[in-house]
Amino acid sequence: MQGKVEWLGGHGIKCINSNGQSLDLDWEDGPSPMQVTLQMIGACSLVDVVTGLKNRPFSEVWVELDSSRAEHSPRVFTSIEMVYHVTGDVPHNLVERIIAKSHEKYCSVSNMFNQTVDISWRVEIHD
Q1: pLDDT value of position 114
Q2: Residue 122 burial by CB count (10 A; 0-12/13-18/19+): exposed, middle or buried?
C-alpha cells in the first residue's frame, strides 16, 4: 500500500492513494486528520458488519463514535465509544458476534489502537 499527501495551500491537504483516488481535507474548515482517523475506525468496522449481515434483511447500518483524547501533546485517543445501529430483522446476538470479531480480528484500523485506546461498543437494533 502506498500513498501521498500534498499540501494544497492554506489549511488544505489532498490524500492520494496508489490508484490516484483522493480525499481532500481542510484541517480548519473540514474534518481534521484526527477526525478522519476516528471515522475510519468506524468505517472499517462498519464494512465488517455489513459484510457479516450479507443475507439478513436490513436497510440501514451506521455507527456513532465518541472519543476522548489526551490533554497534552501528542493528543492521542485515550478512549472511543462506538454505538452500532442496524435497522432490520437481524438477531441482536449475531450483530454482537460480528462486531466482536471485527474488533478482535478483521478491522485493521481498530486493531492498530487496541493496545493503547480503550475501545468500547454496544448495539442498537431498530425495526
Answers
A1: 87
A2: exposed
The CA dihedral of 114, 119, 120, 124, to the nearest 10 degrees, is: -100
Nearest to 90 by CA among 43, 122, 49, 121: 49
Taking the chain (127 residues) in runs of 10, the rounded mean pLDDT of each run is 97 97 94 94 98 96 98 97 98 98 95 94 96
Q: What pLDDT is attached to residue 20?
A: 97
* 68, 78 contact by CB (below 8 A): yes
CATH number of 1-30: 2.20.25
What secondary structure letter does DSSP report for 116?
T
| Spatial separation of the C-alpha atoms in residues 5 and 34, rounded to whole Å | 15
The whole-number pLDDT of residue 124 equals 98
Question: Selecting from 1.10.10.10, 3.30.70.1130, 3.40.50.720, 3.30.300.20, what CATH number does the domain 33-126 have?
Answer: 3.30.300.20
